[in-house]
């Protein structure tokens, strides 16, 4: 399957729903043209409501391309302008995880010349069982493509597994930016406007919803604000990405409802609990859950921040209980390990030795400042301040957990164990983030601040009610083993 076949996949299953009132024209099979502009047409590989997609050959540059030709009767002035603007924006973007746009021609029809990539969609790839690591590798690559698009002001607005291509060479590429628009350039409606009436549309529809010159997206993957007609931005792509990743990992949709209104209502209630199966590392679950918050203000600050939360799960695994001087023990062993009343609660500094200390700080500083980028210095300053503050709070909570049980007598040793385990999990996350930052390349640098900002929330390790109430199954495969 080519990139272009993926672009036409949804339209071939069912016509695009045009909420302006016009239905799909009923026409016969169109003849395949021999040439389109300077391109020699090889075959038609997709057809939808807006036109056809062809595999073609560019003799001038000696390469195969995918041609997306929009039908003349679909080209109103506003539509034509939007598509040209989209092509111009995409042409400025060169990224290995985004299908390239080469050229745009406007005449009786509009033709986009794009990179031709033999492969299959991620939706097809997911028809067979995949490990969480395989899935995450593909989605992190796709996320990099989305982040790159956001960096030039583009919002995809219809991200889903069917619009991600897994090329034959293993490269992941985001495609079908046919629904994309410059960020905030043309919304589905200003805040407060009535959204289009789509009550009869089933929530499992994979068909993009279109209204005049404005594309809303695919209901199953749309963010709550898109349902209500608010302006779409990069956080909508983040939401769709997290819906897609949830679905890819679990095999089920997080918001499985029968009708469009029920789907929208379910999303406003927030993400459901992660299913007991399959077992997935907790950091992945937390990152996805945050990206599915109904209020976009509480999602990750950007796609780069989200990727910074996901990528450590792909790093070579070191068992956190063997890192540094501290060793976690279960049951009541932690409390028994503290000897001497005056020395019982002074181990926090040693716990973070080698995790975040002067040597670790120097390694991260050297890595971040080793890139000749204008924002490298400011990035290091923010990373240093964030990690210093995190380490101080970790040490404070570590001492408090100890003192509350062994000195003040306010909490039991079992509660102390729970608090210490929570802190050790946070320390493991900190150690992994520092390791990544200490070897940061040019791709990590833009995400460095987000990686620090998205460290586990330490106040949760002092929330005794939450710690004692929670009894979920292990979320980390290695812990479950």
What does this structure look like?
The protein has 481 residues and is of the alpha+beta class. The chain folds into two domains: 310 residues, Transferase(Phosphotransferase) domain 1 (Transferase(Phosphotransferase), domain 1), CATH 1.10.510; 157 residues, no CATH class. The chain contains 17 helices and 14 strands. Strands 2-3-4-5-7-6 form a six-stranded antiparallel beta sheet. The protein has a three-stranded mixed beta sheet with strand order 1-13-14, with no helix packed on it. Helix 4 runs antiparallel to helix 6. The protein is elongated. The two termini are 38 Å apart.
Layout of strands and helices, then pairs:
Blueprint: H1 3-13, E1 17-18, E2 35-36, E3 39-48, E4 51-58, E5 63-70, H2 77-91, E6 101-106, E7 110-115, E8 119-121, H3 122-125, H4 132-151, E9 154-155, E10 164-167, E11 172-174, E12 181-182, E13 209-211, E14 214-217, H5 224-227, H6 234-250, H7 260-268, H8 282-291, H9 303-310, H10 333-337, H11 348-351, H12 358-369, H13 376-406, H14 413-438, H15 448-453, H16 464-469, H17 477-480
Helix pairs in contact: 4-6, 4-9, 6-8, 12-13, 12-14, 13-14
């Amino acid at each position: 399957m080519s990139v272009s076949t993926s672009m036409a996949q949804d339209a071939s299953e069912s016509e695009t729903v045009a909420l302006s009132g016009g239905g799909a024209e009923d026409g016969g099979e169109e003849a395949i043209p021999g040439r389109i502009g300077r391109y020699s047409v090889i075959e038609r590989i997709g057809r939808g409501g807006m036109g056809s997609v062809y595999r073609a050959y560019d003799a001038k540059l000696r390469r195969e391309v995918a041609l997306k030709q929009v039908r003349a009767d679909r080209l109103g002035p506003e539509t034509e302008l939007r598509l040209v603007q989209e092509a111009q924006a995409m042409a400025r973007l060169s990224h290995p995880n985004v299908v390239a746009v080469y050229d745009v021609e406007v005449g009786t029809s509009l033709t986009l010349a794009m990179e031709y990539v033999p492969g299959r969609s991620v939706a097809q790839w997911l028809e067979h069982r995949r490990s969480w690591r395989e899935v995450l590798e593909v989605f992190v690559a796709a996320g990099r493509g989305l982040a790159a698009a956001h960096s030039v002001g583009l919002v995809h607005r219809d991200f889903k597994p069917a619009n991600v291509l897994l090329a034959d060479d293993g490269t992941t590429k985001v495609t079908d930016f046919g629904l994309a628009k410059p960020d905030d350039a043309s919304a589905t409606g200003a805040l407060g406007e009535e959204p289009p009436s789509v009550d009869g549309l089933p929530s499992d529809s994979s068909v993009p919803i279109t209204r005049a010159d404005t594309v809303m997206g695919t209901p199953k993957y749309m963010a709550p604000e898109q349902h209500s007609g608010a302006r779409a931005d990069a956080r909508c792509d983040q939401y769709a990405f997290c819906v897609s990743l949830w679905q890819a990992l679990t095999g089920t949709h997080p918001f499985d409802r029968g009708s469009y209104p029920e789907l929208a209502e379910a999303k406003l209630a927030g993400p459901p609990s992660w299913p007991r199966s399959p077992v997935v590392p907790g950091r992945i679950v937390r990152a996805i859950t945050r990206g599915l918050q109904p209020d976009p203000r509480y999602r990750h600050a950007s796609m780069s921040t989200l990727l910074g939360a996901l990528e450590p799960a792909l790093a070579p695994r070191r068992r956190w209980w063997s890192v540094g001087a501290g060793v976690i023990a279960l049951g009541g062993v932690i409390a028994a390990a503290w000897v001497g009343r005056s020395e019982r609660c002074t181990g926090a500094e040693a716990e973070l030795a080698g995790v975040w200390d002067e040597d670790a700080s120097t390694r991260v500083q050297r890595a971040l400042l080793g890139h000749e980028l204008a924002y490298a210095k400011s990035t290091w300053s923010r990373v240093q301040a964030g990690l210093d503050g995190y380490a101080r709070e970790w040490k404070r909570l570590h001492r408090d957990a100890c003192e509350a049980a062994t000195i003040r007598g306010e909490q039991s040793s079992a509660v102390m164990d729970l608090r210490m385990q929570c802190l050790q999990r946070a320390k493991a996350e900190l150690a992994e983030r520092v390791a990544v930052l200490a070897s940061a390349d040019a791709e990590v640098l833009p995400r460095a601040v987000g990686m620090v900002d998205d460290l586990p929330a330490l106040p949760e390790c002092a929330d005794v009610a939450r710690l004692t109430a929670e009894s979920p199954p292990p979320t980390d495969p290695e812990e479950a083993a």
